[in-house]
Amino acid sequence: MSRHSQHTRTRPLAPMLTPHTQLVYFGRAIPWVIIDSMPSMRKYKIQDDRVATPKQQWDCTKSVLLSHFTVELPQIWSFHPICEYFGLATHSVPFPSILTMAWQIGLFFVFEDTFHYWAHRALHWGPLYKHIHKKHHEFSAPFGLAAEYAHPLEVFILGSGTIGGPFLLCALTKNLHILTVYVWIVMRLFQAIDAHSGYDFPISMHNWMPFWAGADHHDHHHMAFVGCYSTSFRWWDHLMGTDLSYKRYRARQAEQKKEAAAKGLSWPTKPPTKNAKGALLESKKAQ
Questions:
Q1: Element (H, E) at 274
Q2: What positions does the domain Fatty acid hydroxylase occupy (predicted)?
Q3: Which ranges of the chain would DSSP assign to H, the alpha helix?
Q4: I need a surface site. Which of 37, 121, 158, 160 has the fewest CB within 10 A?
């Protein structure tokens, strides 16, 4: 292969990644909107007494779009030149092997999860919660679109954990390809949206990968407002004892489902009465 073919420059990262990020984010979130409208899926809803209203979903969408094109866009545009300075391969072949991509993305998940646990826990400190993190907790029963519904400073702070891993790997090893970054960003978006979906299915990852967090774990954080601070894994919450209320609640919930089944009742036993912010649904107010 000629030297020229090995170093033909591709299009810059930002113009490619910006629309792709929108496509991945909303493409992954929309199925959860559809599931929210299906009564047959309510048996898998974690907070079965709550449902996001169309207005809440639309208001959330507008806020997320504004954040994407104001807060996140500069991060996307600056990521490419900074990483290229540190040694990011954007115009070279061959592409990295599947094995190389796997261990690098695995490191990114571990780094991001550790960063997120401590940064997220810090955001629950009084002044930071009041002025920054409180917006994300407007929805006590999260839904997929709400994954990035947050104050601009929170988007910037927690987003640093997502791009921090690639930054460090570039700086320390000079061994990272843009293709790996694309795959990492897609997987991270999928993880964040699924964690906020509000649903726990029998095929959900935590049911066959016990250390995975998922919606089962993160939904409790929104409901209780504290604890379960991690994103992808459960080990930091387990080690620091910040998942004790989650474990007690899930045990009680499992017992309630067992009692309902023993009485021949289908779960959930009652229709939803509140919206995603915990307020009574309009139909219930009118009664």
A1: strand 274-275
A2: 107-242
A3: 3-6, 13-36, 54-67, 73-86, 98-122, 126-131, 152-173, 178-195, 214-224, 235-240, 244-262, 282-285
A4: 37
Encode pLDDT of 12-32 as tens digits. 444 445 566 778 899 999 999
Q: CA-based angle 123:168:206, to the nearest 5? A: 60
Q: Is the pTM of this model over 0.85?
A: yes
SS3 242: coil
Per-residue confidence (pLDDT) for residue 2, from 0 to 100 = 36
* Residue closest to 41 by CA, chosen among 187, 180, 202: 202
Rounded to whole angstroms, how far apart are CA atoms 15 and 11? 8
Q: Is residue 174 very low, low, confident or very high in pLDDT (cuts 50, 70, 90)?
A: confident
CA–CA separation, 208 and 210 (whole Å):
6
Read off the pLDDT band of 90 (50, 70, 90): low
Q: How far apart are CA 199 and CA 37, in angstroms?
A: 13
* Among 144, 240, 155, 154, residue whose Cα is nearest residue 192: 144
Alpha-carbon separation of residue 208 from 202, 205, 274 (angstroms): 9, 6, 31
Tokens 């806020």 belong to which residue? 63
Q: Give the count of alpha carbons within 13 A of 51, CB side only.
A: 21
Looking at residue 51, the DSSP 8-state letter turns out to be: E
pLDDT, averaged across the chain: 88
